[in-house]
Design brief:
single chain; 370 residues; alpha/beta; binds adenosine-5'-triphosphate; ATP-binding; ATP binding; translocase; membrane
Length: 370
């Protein structure tokens, strides 16, 4: 029986991020929402790359722009959102010339092909992806018939096979079930099966397990990791849960108010965090060996109102290391930590941060005052 074609091959490399192979590179992305009460500057110069065959975690508190970054990659930002600036470079294969997704028409055939064939997205709520009026099997078959084979019998066989691979008991029966007939964990598996049915080069997983109980969450995370290793799909894993990051990710980008403030291999994020925001995020989670009575620390203050203006470093109003006259005036540039380009930070505690002249920021440091 022919297996679905695996489009992407894992290529392990010890090179720097600039040299390393990526599937998607987001460069200096700006996104605004033009609402009736004002402009929300949701993304303010987001830059990062998703390494081929690896899992990149995107973490940060609610409202920092994680989901909108994922939706931007698929050109699915809802109105009244508008991408103002930036590039999203996509490379299907390592040797391909990159395609700038933002140059493609939102509804063009090429964009639809990328959405259906190369990049899949899964959400916290499976019913966002699953259609309640079609059986699970029909929905998976539809994707396979559209992108892989016109043969209905073969499509059915592949649909059942992928349901088996995501650990569904009795996949033949599940294929004939409607979404409402399944439990939450089963629906999540069905959604993953649907997303992986075309062996995408990239899977964008937006809090896919947040709504599940911890036991089911652990099973689904294991499954995703297994399938990722088997198929070689890259994953952009959006979460606010640092425990999930430790379990799932190879690299991590920490976002604060529409900007990446630190990115590094996962071990560096946990054992050598640099940005005060990353450190605060880590202090707010329980750790093994921590004294029972020790209270978890809450990050001081709250995320600024989306319409408000912050000058300098967007984190300065909450930062324990705040340096008046610098942090509230100058937006820190992204700099490598001790010359290591795999680990970068945007913070004035580290050399090289004062590169950009004084700038005003809106909602988390939009670059330039308007
Ligand atoms: N339709 C919209 N209209 C106006 N502002 C929006 C809209 N959608 C998102 N935003 C704003 O964009 C910013 C980024 O939102 P986003 O959903 O990406 O955050 P997030 O980090 O994914 O948060 P969460 O973890 O809660 O999903 C937020 O300030 C949010 O209020």
């Amino acid at each position: 029986m022919a297996e679905p074609v695996i489009k992407n091959q894992v290529k392990t490399t010890e090179s720097t991020p600039q040299e390393a192979d990526y599937v998607v590179e987001v460069k200096d992305l700006y996104l605004n929402f033009y609402t009736q009460v004002g402009v929300v500057r949701a993304l303010n110069g987001v830059s990062f790359s998703i390494p081929r065959g690896k899992v990149l975690g995107i973490v940060g508190e609610s409202g920092c722009g994680k989901s909108q970054t994922g939706l931007s990659i698929l050109q699915l930002v809802p109105p009244p959102g508008r991408i103002e600036k930036g590039q999203i470079l996509f490379k299907r294969n390592p040797d391909d010339e990159p395609i700038d997704i933002l140059k493609l028409g939102r509804n063009s055939d090429e964009m639809r092909n990328i959405r259906g064939d190369d990049i899949s997205m899964i959400f916290q709520e499976p019913m966002t992806s699953l259609n309640p009026v079609y059986t699970i099997g029909d929905q998976i078959m539809e994707a396979i018939l559209l992108h892989q084979t016109p043969d209905k019998k073969e499509a059915r066989r592949r649909a059942v096979d992928i349901l088996r691979r995501v650990g569904m008991p009795n996949p033949e029966r599940i294929a004939d079930s409607y979404p409402h007939e399944l439990s939450g964990g089963m629906r999540q598996r069905a959604m993953i099966a649907l997303a992986l049915s075309c062996t995408p080069v990239l899977l964008i997983a937006d809090e896919p397990t947040t709504a599940l109980d911890v036991t089911t969450e652990a099973v689904i995370l294991d499954l995703m990791r297994e399938l990722q290793a088997e198929i070689g799909t890259s994953i952009m894993f959006v979460t606010h849960n640092m425990g999930v990051v430790a379990q799932m990710c190879d690299e991590v980008a920490v976002m604060y108010l529409g900007r990446v403030v630190e990115r590094a291999p996962v071990d560096d994020i946990f054992y050598n965090p640099k940005h005060p925001y990353t450190i605060a995020l880590l202090r707010s989670i329980p750790r093994i060996g921590q004294k029972k009575r020790k209270r978890l620390e809450v990050i001081k203050g709250s995320v600024p109102d989306p319409y408000s203006t912050v000058t300098g470093c967007p984190f300065h109003p909450r930062c324990p290391n705040f340096m008046p006259g610098l942090c509230d005036k100058v937006l820190p540039a992204e700099t490598p930590v001790n010359g290591d380009t795999k680990h970068t930070v945007r913070c004035h505690l580290y050399p090289g941060s004062v590169e950009v002249p004084s700038q005003a920021s809106t909602h988390g440091g939009a670059a330039v005052a308007s």
